[in-house]
Amino acid sequence: MTAEGQPEGTVGKALAVLETVAERGEPIRFSDLLETSRYPKATLYRLVQTLTRQQMLRHDPQTGTYALGVRLVRLAHSAWAQSSLAPLARPHVDALSAATGETIHLAQLDRGQVLYVDKRNAARPIEMFAQAGKVGPAYCTGVGKAMLAFLDDEGLAEALKAQSFYRHTKHTITSEDALRAELAGIRELGYALDREEHELGIICCAVPVLSRTHRPLGAISLTTTVARATLAQLDEKAALLLETAARIAEDAESWRFPERT
Questions:
Q1: Structural contact between residues 243 and 222, judged by C-beta atoms closer than 8 angstroms
Q2: Angle, in degrees to the nearest 10, between helices 176-189 and 153-161
Q3: pTM
Q4: Span 9-74: which CATH code?
């Protein structure tokens, strides 16, 4: 059943299977897929076979595992090119990374969560969760908070329903009231800080990429570690980030990039 209580149909079931395989992050056996599936074995088998014939899944007969197929990869690449800020933002992200020597992330909101769509590593790369293609929490990441802060009331209410408020570190915001107070401050400043809220030792400064109607199209962040910089030093980078975000927004408007929440 869908969230609206209506039967999801074959397409919805097939998409659920693809999401499960994608989230696994590595090839998966049918038996393991069955353990996590809400569908009966016969239904799941038919779905997997159909997806394999359509090249949406790839079966390795030697290992007996399934992985995402080449046709899905082609579709994903087209979606990235048409619906992501990444292609048009790339030169600006590259320039910002070169100017600062730090890691730059580009992200968008996807159903209240953060979807990282591009990343440029620092001169000295940092091990961290955020990678292009990964989905992360919005309430405890700089890019997430930067985008949430500029949603309208209805959009924010929907996005807040998707937040888990799980305590990742001792610095994590763990309540809606505390997050709302944080977002009010971000709207005033125009940028957000991640104070080791998602990962210990990782800090960042993030700004939204806003449309002419002040809706968040995405966000960019400069990420570093507490060993390299202080939060006060990140504050000083906000103006450069805001300038870059404004240039990305201008290019997005020229291409009539769709506004998303």
A1: no
A2: 140
A3: 0.69
A4: 1.10.10.10
